[in-house]
Amino acid sequence: xxxxxxxxxxxxxxxxxxxxxxxxxxxxxxxxxxxxxxxxxxxxxxxxxxxxxxxxxxxxxxxxxxxxxxxxxxxxxxxxxxxxxxxxxxxxxxxxxxxxxxxxxxxxxxxxxxxxxxxxxxxxxxxxxxxxxxxxxxxxxxxxxxxxxxxxxxxxx
Length: 157
Prior knowledge:
The protein is of the alpha+beta class. It contains 2 helices and 8 strands; from the N terminus they run ααββββββββ. The protein has helices at 2-20, 34-46; strands at 53-63, 76-79, 88-98, 104-113, 116-125, 129-139, 145-151, 154-156. Strand 4 and strand 5 (116-125) form a beta hairpin.
């Protein structure tokens, strides 16, 4: 009886080990190449003087600021996809990657109507790693609006 029990435990353990070693799903992406990871790590640990890295900027109608759903917290959940009505609040949503020790207070978002800067709003960045932030304005006129990110007198892409 004791041998049967030991064999059952042994086979159960082996079956579990086989499940754990199963290959990843066919649609799983491989990790980035080592040289890309090295560049990011170097920037994270030694890039404080290089400034913030703008990863993405979007015009959004809705940003999840409630924090209730961890999957969409601080994300642009309704990007602008076409014309917006006059007096609509539009958010300039940005995602950044910041190095350790980061503290940038010279970043701003500009909301531009045609060629005229209608609003400039400061953005303070100090959380290392991925950080998302947004600033808002009301589209007070009908026409083409643009959102730009600036650091000092330099426009960021």
